[in-house]
Amino acid sequence: MLIRLASRRGHDKEREIGATAVEYALMASLIAMVIFAAVALIGPKLGLIFTEAAASL
């Protein structure tokens, strides 16, 4: 009985490692989407600012 419990305990740690890898992948993809959205929204305005600055020189 104790051997079964000990063997199950080791398998739970493997599952936790796999779950954290999935969580890290989800967080990384969410961060990438936020960066992409920020660049898509701010990019044209930033380009206009640099164009006006270059024209004024």
From TrEMBL:
A Pfam family per the record: Flp_Fap
Keywords recorded for this protein, A-Z: Membrane, Transmembrane, Transmembrane helix
Membrane spanning stretches: 21-42
Protein's name in the database: Flp family type IVb pilin
The organism of origin for this protein: Knoellia aerolata DSM 18566
Taxonomic lineage from the root: Bacteria, Bacillati, Actinomycetota, Actinomycetes, Micrococcales
